[in-house]
Amino acid sequence: MSAEEQVKLDNFPGIFDLTGKVAVVTGGSRGLGLHAASGLLQAGCSKVYITSRKKQACDEAVEALNKIPNRRPGAKAISVPADSSRMDELDRLVAEVSKTTDHVDILFANAGATWGEKFDTHPESAFSKVMDLNVKSVFYSVQKFAPLLTAKATRDDPSRVLVTGSVAGIGIGGIGENATPSYSISKAAVIHLARNLAVELGPRHILTNAIAPGFYPSKMASGLMELKGGVKHLEDFSPNLRLGRPEDIAGLVVFLSSRAASHLNGAVITTDGGAVLKGRL
């Protein structure tokens, strides 16, 4: 078959289109989760459920998202506050979402926390808090949403689970006075969790992939960014000479949720401009 004949067979309309899809974004009231939710709405999702621990933050995020001018007609963000680190709250979250949809196409398990403390004095309570939210809550969020994720999933139109790792889970993260051991360990764990879920859930027509962001200016990252020398220093360290922008995370989440990524399962995609390849700062 000639190249011309093959190209005539290639037909990729709407390859990144998410029209009518239903998404849930944990940790969606600010930072990377909010940028991702914005991208999902703009790509065509009909419903995007925003959840985080604080009701006011969820409500403010939803109000802003529902003002996006290029949403599809009828598309909306919906606030469902919940503490993802608690099993009873996860059960309530699923129950609340189920009141207004009979399925979920995309689950972006993005809720997370960090704790900065050197090795010798890192408290057990902080370690448990970080691991519970960054790893345990991701596992149980997926487990509890699995019935909704499988409800309309098929081999050729699978549902998606996306989890937020970090380049700190690929390298070793901060050490010394600015150490973040529990965060780095938790992000390595959630990346490996994504691989396990990919094999477990793939036959159920649910694809699972992980993203591993580097530095994106956000409330959670701002303190560590200052300790690392500030924005300009971090930009100069990155091979592409800049930090992450909202469209970088939104575009990656839309891609992984779309038909364009329907043969990716168990992948870990870094979004850091290549900085992790240079090693530690």
Describe the model.
By secondary structure, the chain is an alpha/beta fold. The chain has a single domain, classed as Rossmann fold. The chain is 42% helix and 13% strand. It contains nine helices and seven strands. It has helices at 3-9, 31-42, 55-65, 87-98, 124-150, 181-201, 219-227, 230-237, 246-257; strands at residues 22-26, 47-51, 76-79, 106-109, 159-164, 206-213, 268-271. It has a seven-stranded parallel β-sheet with strand order 3-2-1-4-5-6-7, sandwiched between helices. Helix 2 packs across helix 9 (246-257). The longest helix is centred in the middle third of the chain and has 27 residues, at 124-150. It is globular, with a radius of gyration of 19 Å.
Descriptive terms for the model:
Rossmann fold; alpha/beta; 7 strands; 281 residues; seven-stranded parallel beta sheet
Helical content stands at 40-55%
What is the number of helices? 9
The CATH architecture classification is 3-Layer(aba) Sandwich
Widest sheet, order of strands: 3-2-1-4-5-6-7
Low-confidence stretches: none
Globular, elongated, flat, extended or rod-shaped: what is the shape? globular
Element pattern in H and E: HEHEHEHEHEHEHHHE
Arithmetic mean of pLDDT: 92
Radius of gyration: 19 Å
The largest sheet is: 7 strands, parallel
Fourth-tier CATH superfamily name: NAD(P)-binding Rossmann-like Domain
> What is the CATH third-level topology name?
Rossmann fold
Portion of residues in beta strands equals 5-15%
Domain count: the total is: 1
CATH class identity:
Alpha Beta
- The chain-level structural class is alpha/beta
What's the total count of β strands?
7
